[in-house]
Structures are given as structure tokens and as C-alpha cells.
Amino acid sequence: MGDGPNEHDQHRSDHRGAFGEFGGESSGLIDRTFRERIVLVGVTMPEGSADETDASLDELALLVDTAGADEVGRIHQRRNSPDPATFVGKGKAQEIKDMSLATDSDTVVFDDELSPAQQGNLEKILGRSALDRTAVILDIFAQNASSTEGKAQVELAQLKYRLPRLRSSSRTFSQQGGGIGTRGPGETQLEVDRRRLVRRVHKLEEDLRKLAKNREVQSKARRRTSNRRVALVGYTNAGKSSVLNRLTAADVLAEDRLFATLDATTRKLSLPGGEMLFLTDTVGFVRKLPTQLVEAFKSTLDVVIDADLLLHVVDASAPDVAGNIDAVRRTLHAIGAQDVPEVMVFNKVDLNPDVEGLLARFPGSVAVSAAEGTGIDGLLETLSDRLRSMTELVELTIPYDRGDVLAKIHREGQVLSETANEVGIVVRARLDPDSKGRLAEWLSGSDKVSPAVPEPWE
Ligand SMILES: Nc1nc2c(ncn2[C@@H]2O[C@H](COP(=O)(O)OP(=O)(O)OP(=O)(O)O)[C@@H](O)[C@H]2O)c(=O)[nH]1
Ligand SMILES: [Mg+2]
Question: What is the pLDDT of residues 8-43, one digit of tens each?
Fold first, then answer.
């Protein structure tokens, strides 16, 4: 096989830069008119291990497959630090080129984010597109976005990824032309392109702010009720949407596909004890979720940060359960939700009935099959118990002329009894710490000094 540009090279360069076109049309760096052949490259730095790199490359292969391409080869390197110019060493870059030629690959995908300069240099050496994991994930998100907000979030993430890389791919925009009024005297096409993109970024940010405001109104309304907020989180494809459907008959899309869910869906769920809660399904996580996406999806992910409790759904049949749990924990950390209490839910136990070891390793966790409905009663019970343990039983005395305070207690807590005395109405209720703080002046007797009141039956 020759060394120079082949037909594939030609074909590929025609498609370069289609990523993130204006108007939010879902389009990608990965050409979907045929299945591209891809070489994957992973680098192990001193703080990582070869096993971790392998697991990450397995995941990358899955991501590439979801985006519509096939892995045809894999290259691994150990380094102390990335090469600033080419990420891998020069010798390794040549090896990648040789493998690309031998396997007739169209594109090389690196498991770590490449700087714009690294990407440009690698494309020169390799004679084909050099993409990174972030581009692949953004591409999948672009294919899956369907709501107005989802599309805007993905486009924003794409533009933020693309802006610093504009220099090397500006030719695409020159071909498209700037349109009337966009080309000023003495202005380079690159500057015009950049300004258009920056304007688009501002417009998207403004649109998303408005959408987030609407959501804030809804979530404030939910906060005014006594209902707790629980969010489903977990590795992508673990079965979060299936669990929501099983618990609430929500009818959201659940399919064997990475990142099927991009929008948050909230449904009411009533627990066996009669308490109501709001359960929200949201976007799944993977290793090294791109920061551009985490930022763009901030308002969607706020439901996770604001939740009283997380149901961390884990696919018990996955090849690397511990690695997936770790990836989710890291992402929770990245979005600032590391302190929200969680219940671990091992799903798909129909595919791996041997979950005893997992349950033992994670005390308080539950095993379910959302597909078959097993373990769901146990999950509901665990949910009730955990939520109840997060409230306190308190006694408050409310003067007769403060009906508003009484109404507030009913809204925010669970009232167990009301008795009248000469001062007012004595209410025994379960309150969460926030409500207790807001109602502090009405707490009677020992509740004022000792925050934790033991259950009479405990
Ligand atoms: N065998 C089996 N399959 C399940 C179970 N729960 C979910 N699935 C399947 O797993 C796949 C993913 O389920 P989803 O509910 O879409 O997973 P998700 O976590 O919402 O995934 P994303 O939204 O893509 O991140 C679907 O094909 C489901 O039918 C289960 O308990 N057993
Ligand atoms: Mg889902």
C-alpha cells in the first residue's frame, strides 16, 4: 500500500470540518455515509495503569461504534508526560501511521484530549484525521439531541471545543463563505469565522439561560412542597431510564445505546408509606466526560446537585463494574455533587444473578432488574428508609393566629399529630434539616437544643 494520499484521504478531507455546523444540525466529524475505519491510541501516564488504559480504550471503541465507525487497530504507549507537539512520541506517531496504512484506516482517535496544535501536527504526520475522545462524544451527543434545550447544549459544547481549533480547520468556513456583510476590508476569513462563532456562543448561552430560568421556576415549585427530590445517576446504558419507567410508568426512551437520554425527565413517585417524591432521570456518564459538555449541560445537571438523594444505577453485568462506578463518582465530583447521599442500585441482575459480592461491598445497596421487575419492592423500601432517616421528628408549638406557619409545616414536612393547648397548636412532624432551620423559632423544648430526636421505637 502506498504512502501518499489515497482515495480515502481525498474523501475524508471533503468531510472535514462539518462538525458543529451553524443552525445546530446534527453533523459530525465522523462520516456516516460509510463506516469509517478507526485506529485507537491510548497513552498511560505514570499516575495511571495499563489496565485502566485498556478499559478506557474498550470504552472508546464502544463510543466510536456508537458514533458509527469501526475499530481496526489499537496502539498503546507509556509516557511520563504528553509530548507538547504530538502528544505521543515521534517514533510512536510513525508507528501509528504504519498501522493506519496497514489497516487502511481513515481516522485515528486518541483517548485523551489533544490540543489544537497537537491535532494539527498529528494530522500532518499521519496524513489523515486525528480526533480525540471529546470529538467522538460530542458527535454522539449531536446525533442524539432532540429537544430544543438538548440541541442548544450540544451545539454550545461543540462550539467551545471548536473555537480554539478554528485556525487549523478554517478552510471549511472559507469555502462556505461568510455571506453579505460578514467580510470587512482587511479582515481575514479566520477573524470573520471566529466572530460568527463567538456570536453564536453568546446567543446559545442566552437561550439556555432563559430555558434554565423556566426550569428554576418549576424546581422552586417542587421545593415548596414537602416532596423529596431523588435523581437517577449512573454510567451510560446502565438502565436509569428503565428504572424510571419501571417505578413510575414514565415511558421515556430506554434503548441499548450510549447516551440515549440527554434531557432530564421528572416524574412523581409515591412510596409504599404514602410519601411522594420527585424522581428525575438524566444524562449518563462515562470516563473523562468532556468538560465542554459538563459545562453546557450545567442546568440539566443541577437536578443532580440539588437532589436530596441519588440512586446510582450500576449495570451489574458490565465487564468493569468497579471502573464504571469510579467513572460516575469522578463525574459527580466534577459537577460538585459528591456530597449528595447515594443509594447504589445494581441493575440487570437477570444477566448476572451473582451480585452477592457487589452487595456486600456496598452496604445499603440493592439489586434489581428493571427489565423483569425483580427487586423493585426492595428498592422502594430502601428509598423510604433512607429518606426517612434524613428527616427528624420534632415538636413545634404554633400560636393560634399563625395559620400560615401551620400551613408551611404541612407543606414542608410530614405531620404526625396536632393537639391544642392553651398557647397554640402542638405539632409533631418529620422535617428535613432545612425546614427545621426555617421553623426554628417554633420548636418546642428540647428540640431547640438537641437537633436529633430519637424515634420512640428506636
Ligand atoms: N437484561 C436487562 N436489560 C436491561 C435492564 N434494564 C435496562 N436494560 C436494557 O439496557 C439498555 C439501556 O437501558 P436504559 O434504561 O436506556 O439505560 P440508561 O442508563 O438510561 O442509558 P442512557 O440514557 O443511554 O445513558 C436497554 O436496552 C434496556 O432495555 C435489566 O434489568 N436487564
Ligand atoms: Mg437513559
Answer: 433 333 333 333 333 333 345 555 567 889 999 999
Check if CATH label 3.30.70 holds for domain 391-448: yes
Burial 231-268 (b: 16+ CB within 10 A, else e): bbbbbbbbbbbbbbbbbbebebebeeebbbbbbbbbbe
| Residue 173, pLDDT score | 36
Torsion of CA 42, 43, 45, 48, to 10 degrees: 20
Q: Ligand 1: distance of its center to the CA of 237 in Å?
A: 5
- Select from 390, 431, 88 the least CA-distant residue to 440: 431
Model pLDDT for residues 183-221, shown as the tens digit of each residue: 444 557 788 888 999 999 999 999 999 988 887 777 777
User: Does 350 contact ligand 1 (Cβ within 6 A)?
Assistant: yes
Decide: 236 in ligand 1 pocket, CB within 6 A. Answer: yes
Please name every residue paired with 429 in a beta bridge, in sequence order, or none if there are none: 394, 415
Which of 62, 143, 233, 237 has most ligand 1 atoms within 8 Å of its beta carbon, as the pocket-test mutant?
A: 237
Whether domain 227-388 has CATH 3.40.50.300: yes
- What is the location of CATH 3.40.50.300 in the chain? 227-388
> Phi and psi dihedrals of 297, rounded to 5?
-90, 15
**Which ligand is closest to the CA of 144, given by its number?**
1
Residue bearing the bigger pLDDT, 170 or 145: 145
Distance (angstroms) between ligand 2 centre and the Cα of 193 equals: 36
Residue nearest to atom 13 of ligand 1 (CA): 239
Coil, helix or strand at residue 454: coil
Instruction: Give CATH 3.30.70 domain extents, the chain.
Output: 391-448
Domain with CATH 3.40.50.11060 in the chain: 7-144
To test the pocket of ligand 1, the residue of 241, 247, 374 to mutate (highest count of ligand atoms within 8 Å of its CB) is: 241
Report the share of the chain in percent with pLDDT over 90: 59
Ligand at minimal distance from the CA of 315 is 1
Q: Which three cell numbers stand for residue 445?
A: 423544648
Question: Could you tell me the pTM of the whole model?
Answer: 0.80
CB-proximal residues (5 Å) to ion ligand 2: 240-241, 260-261
CATH fold of the domain at 7-144:
Rossmann fold (3.40.50)
**Ligand 1 atom having least distance to the Cα of 262:** 23
**DSSP code of 115?**
P
Ligand 1 pocket, residue 260 CB under 6 Å: yes
